[in-house]
Amino acid sequence: MYRERIHMTVRDRDGWNTAIDATAEINAICTRLKLPTATLWTETVGPFNQLTWDIDHETLASYEAAQKALRSDEEWGKQVGRITEVAESDKGFTELLETVTPV
After folding, report:
1. Are the CB atoms for 64 and 49 separated by under 8 Å?
2. pLDDT, tens digit (0-9, with 9 covering 90-100), for 5-38
3. How many CB atoms lie within 10 A of CB 85?
4. C or N terminus of the chain, fewer CB within 10 Å?
5. Torsion 74-82-16-49 (CA) sign
6. Neighbours of 43 (CB within 10 A)
7. Which sign, positive or negative, has the C-alpha torsion 14, 69, 60, 90?
8. CA 56, CA 41: separation in Å to the nearest integer?
9. How far is residue 65's CA from residue 67's CA, in Å, rounded to a whole number?
10. What span, in angstroms and rounded, lies between the C-alpha atoms of 13 and 5?
């Protein structure tokens, strides 16, 4: 199992609402394409305006296939652009985690 985790900071309340709305649209696109959807998180206690998206993928190959499918979807690009417009520059990053197996 692989977990894609995307972190970002939005500038203000309008950005917050835009990111939430765009996430709903992106999840609808993922559902249409039969891809995993994101769960959106924020800190209960901690810095303000932080958002984290978690998306689970069964395999690395399924993660790569999802990336390819999404990047070729024009509507997905528009929604990602909406999020990018409200993000604080240089405050976002991504992670790709995998489940632990015995060594």
Report:
1. no
2. 999 999 999 999 999 999 999 999 999 999 999 9
3. 13
4. C
5. positive
6. 11
7. negative
8. 14
9. 5
10. 22
Query: How many other C-beta atoms lie within 10 A of the C-beta of residue 51?
Result: 22
Contact 52, 7 (CB under 8 A): yes
The whole-angstrom separation of Cα 50 and Cα 15 is 11
Q: What is the pTM of this model?
A: 0.90
